[in-house]
Amino acid sequence: MRPINLPLFFVCTILVSFNPSKLHKNIQPVPDKPNVILIFMDDMGYGDPVCYGGGPYQTPNIDRLANTGIRFSNFYAAQAVCSASRSALLTGCYPTRIGISGAIDHNAGFGLNQSEETIPELLKKNGYKTGMAGKWHLGHVEPYLPLQHGFDEFLGIPYSNDMWPVYYDGTPWTDSTSYRSTYPVLPLIEGNKAVGYIRTLEDQSKLTRMFTERAVQFIQTNKNNPFFFYLAHPMVHVPLAASERFKGKSKGGLFGDVMEEVDWSVGIILKTLEENKLLENTLVIFTSDNGPWLTFGNHAGNTGGLREGKGTAWEGGVKVPCIMSWKGKLPAGVVNNQLATTMEILPTLASLCGAPSPQQKIDGIDMANVLLGRTTTIGRNEFVYYYDKNNLKAIRNHRYKLVFPALSQTYGPPAVIGKDGYPGKYGTDSVKLALFDLWTDPGEDRNVLALYPKVAEELNSKADQYRKELGDGLTKATGTSVRPAGLLKN
């Protein structure tokens, strides 16, 4: 059995289901055009917020969101890597359906196709103002930057904050034999043009505040219009950096300092909404793009005891925190344990905000009626775990997860874990066919394939449908319902 070093906080969580007759007796009518704030973290693990078992740092504002809204305990990013995950969030599609994979950088030859309809594009059709601050990561040249995908304004970085020619200690990279030496200076983009550059760790330490201040400015400017703002924080992705106000102040080292500054950001957003009397007309969503990058050791987050982390198809790679809060409209202090994903956010927002649905097929499920207490069923019967370019690594239903034979990155032996901002090295694991009961074994330790062969057969049959529709590199299947990414011209 694989040893687990982190406590399984979530095992002790009391999971409750919606009871509309009890939870919504005093709920007011839903506004026609609610505002939406979508806060998307980078590499924040399932166990990082205190309300999910994190610490010893404090996250009172994130916890406040959970106490005033719904905390999801079975919520998934579509893939365990940046660009793929972000494409799924904004389009409601499995990344492989729309040709996105990996974490693209300045050498990428593809980006999010302009034919794909995003959340801001759909909401703009119903009169919404749209803005974004933070990390984009879906195409670094003008035809594929946020303004070309539905955002009225954008301040941020084009890809991950570690895609720059800087060494792990913050000094310029000098080794010309390393791929990192090929990176240009990390640009800060306003609209479609670079307005500055991120050259040092001191520059990195200003990003959380800078992007939070842009969100505040956007809210204040558009308080009399329906609006959608996407705050995609570069943190807690390495290199970690906290401002002077937070550096050295937490009880959790630099990672804890960064968590507390991110939590401050959430608090400022809530304070701004409250001061402008917008809390009762604004849905706030807080979630993450994938699990923690564990090879960075004490600069990485916490899976809450889930297996592995970012870059894998194990639960620690794709199961993420998610909180939705809307004063007076959603129930307060509820834990929802149904299967849900980031792909549900687009159709749910389209429904709540009166926007049209995408013309092309998506994979997300509208769960607006679940949020509002009109039903208890989300309707997602399975989730497929794709990774690498297009490898179908696993499939789960509400209870069981079938894992297919494949090679996988691993943070276990023979991997080496890093420290203080320096990375370790991945290991490689030859994964065998296995079935896990996620209700009783969320850490994926005990293979029950021999006990439930019919469950495995049913899941594999369902996986065959996805192989036919979306393809599968492991079985050399070509998908019949996939669309190409956009081709970039550098």
TrEMBL record:
This is Arylsulfatase. PROSITE patterns: SULFATASE_2. The keyword Protein biosynthesis does not apply. Coiled coil: none annotated. The keyword Metal-binding applies. Belongs to the sulfatase family. InterPro entries: Alkaline_phosphatase_core_sf, Sulfatase, Sulfatase_CS, Sulfatase_N. Keywords: Calcium, Hydrolase, Metal-binding. It comes from Flavihumibacter stibioxidans. CDD domains: GALNS_like. Residues 34-354 form the Sulfatase N-terminal domain.
